[in-house]
Amino acid sequence: MTVTTSTNHKLSHSRNTDERFQALDRALARRYVVRLLQERRLRSNQEQSQGDILFRPRVEICDNPSSSRITATLELPGMKADDVRVTLERDNLLAISGERVSKALSDQSASVSFPVREIKYGKFLRTLDVPSGTMMSTISAAMSDGMLLISWPRSPPGARTRSPQ
């Protein structure tokens, strides 16, 4: 009789443990699904706000501590300076935008096919954070050989710098 009681006790303990793990699994799965849905909603809101933006140019940011300016280099092969817009949005967001148009599409007939198509065409947008208070007059931009070089001051004019204590 004691054997039966201990076996029943072990079985009920095992069932309780299984039920706890199942409840934990359900709770974690619920949280995971909620998080996925939130991320998907956020991504879709961002895509809608960007409209028909097709790509983001690659960027390289150089922050040399010995320089008073920070520089960013963007890859924009085949583009001219007139095709690119650099604007300061809000107080601290630098927006680089434009559109790359395929010359091959305008020169060719509709019967031409492209077995491989890796070059991105269409509208692009890239945003970079700049220090709050930066003015457009302090930002410089130059385009050379499909590379856009933009620089801005490390700290905006008139910003207070802390003296070492």
Describe the overall structure.
With 165 residues, the chain is an alpha+beta fold. It contains two helices and seven strands; from the N terminus they run αββββαβββ. It is flat. The C terminus is likely disordered.
The rounded distance between the terminal residues' Cα atoms is 80 Å
How big a fraction of the residues is strand?
25-35%
Mean pLDDT: 80
- Low-confidence runs of at least 5 consecutive residues: 161-165
Tally of alpha and pi helices: 2
User: What's the gyration radius in Å?
Assistant: 28 Å
**Looking across the biggest beta sheet, what order are the strands in?**
1-2-7-6
Overall outline: flat
Share in helix: 25-40%
Q: Got a strand count? A: 7
Alpha-beta content class: alpha+beta
Largest sheet: 4 strands, antiparallel
**What is the string of helix and strand elements?**
HEEEEHEEE
Which short descriptors sum up this protein?
165 residues, alpha+beta, 4-stranded antiparallel sheet, 3-stranded antiparallel sheet, 2 helices, 7 strands, disordered C terminus
Question: What topology emerges from the helices and strands here?
Answer:
Elements: H1 2-50, E1 59-62, E2 69-75, E3 84-89, E4 93-100, H2 103-107, E5 122-129, E6 140-144, E7 147-153
Antiparallel strand pairs: 1-2, 2-7, 3-4, 4-5, 6-7
What is shown here, in short?
With 165 residues, the protein is of the alpha+beta class. It has two helices and seven strands. Strands 1-2-7-6 form a four-stranded antiparallel β-sheet, with no helix packed on it. Strands 3-4-5 form a three-stranded antiparallel β-sheet, with no helix packed on it.
